Amino acid sequence: MPESPIVYRRRPASSPSAPSANGSSSAAAETKQAGLAARTALRRGFWGSQHPMVHRTVIVATFLALTVVTDALAPTSDEASLLEAFIPRSVFRAVLITWVSASLFTYDPAYAYPYTLAFTVPLVTMYFAHLGCYHMVVLQVFGVIPALELVSPKNHFDLTREEENQLRSMRSFRYITWIWVPLQLAHIVWGMYVASAWGLSRSQLALLTASIGISTGGLGINFAHELIHKPTKLEKGLGRILLASVCYGSFYVEHLYGHHRHVSTPHDPASARYSESLYAFLPRTLVGSFRSACHIAAARCVKAGVPVLSLSNEVYSLLAVSAGMAACAWAIFGALGLGMFFGQSAVAILLLEIVNYIEHFGLARKPSDKYEGEFEPVTPIHSWNSTACITDLFLLNLQRHSHHHAKAGDRYQILHSYDDYEAPQMPTGYAGMMLLALVPPLWFAVMRPRVDALRERNLL
């Protein structure tokens, strides 16, 4: 399928003066100086230089209030007392706030450390569970982040070609995606241990399962998505391990060889239609994506000359890995551990498919004028984007989705932003849009007018 071009843009700090007849060199110098000023302003801190102090104050106050209130509500237990002996709550709170504040205040595209914000989700889950609080991550991801996105600045910053070439080869960005793999596996094992050994109530077990699923699905599958698109065997292997740990290895096959080919067409089970609610989309995509993955994997086996019913079939091999993980969960942690393994997998898969729903809702490609049964090439118009800054850091710039579909192999640190005219924009970040999708009348009221506007421009 032909790839659409990427528009390289930079939002300048100020517009350079128009060149005069004999002043082209002076104009070039002014343009270079303006670009340098823009980069210097960013290096001083994206939040601090571009936006008022209230944004930073709101974020620190919110995280501080959240942790203080949670501390006050946390019951005293033997586990809490033991944990307090090693990491006092005041110390953990200070580290968390410093971590979040440093990542947001000093955001700089040239550095990888702000993207470590994703690591706070499993760490918060594990720490506060020891204090008897199992709701922290649910509140963090679907309460605090959507609220902050309403008042936080938008990230329109783009890289120049020179900066892109520099960042493309920086290994620090890769290390973050690699580190997530053992962290997620440890998180799942810890969750199975807690489920089997702590004697939790049903509500506590449900909240803990949801929290781990948010980590492994809302974040973990996104890390897997980043890894499986890369050319190295190491990264593809790490991505497959993450997908197997949530029982969704079929995503590897269907996404790479199905979704990216058929996106925004009737042939793609992961593209939501204009008239389709989330609750109509979910069963269609769950069944259709697995069926599509099986067909694609079988065709690949036939092409390679290997048996379809074998571990050479990528769908079956990853299902076997998931089955092995489930068997270990049963053998070591019993029925409750196995239930936790499957429960967090179900939450993870559900979150992924909700994200799929919002990413291409109503954006249908036109039939091709040249080839019967084919469709026009994918363009930036066929993916919803968002400039929500906080979610960008947690989700590795996944919200710059048009660039991803134009150049799927590009690493997350060099994905480009599009303005409203070049690509459709969601009103807020993924977390807020996922909540909106849960209420179809509100979703349709917000999103259908945006799709209609694209149709009026004859883009769909």
Automatic annotation (TrEMBL):
Membrane topology recorded in Swiss-Prot or TrEMBL: Multi-pass membrane protein
Protein name: Alkane 1-monooxygenase
Predominant cellular place of this UniProt entry's protein: membrane
Positions of the Fatty acid desaturase domain: 206-434
Stretches that traverse the bilayer: 53-74, 172-193, 205-225, 340-358, 428-447
Region described as Disordered: spans on this chain: 1-26
Localization: Cell inner membrane
A GO BP annotation: lipid metabolic process
Key word Transmembrane present: yes
Species this protein is from: Thecamonas trahens ATCC 50062
Composition skew (Low complexity), residue ranges: 13-26
Secretion signal span: none
A molecular function GO annotation: metal ion binding
Hydrolase recorded as keyword: no
Family the UniProt entry places it in: Belongs to the fatty acid desaturase type 1 family. AlkB subfamily.
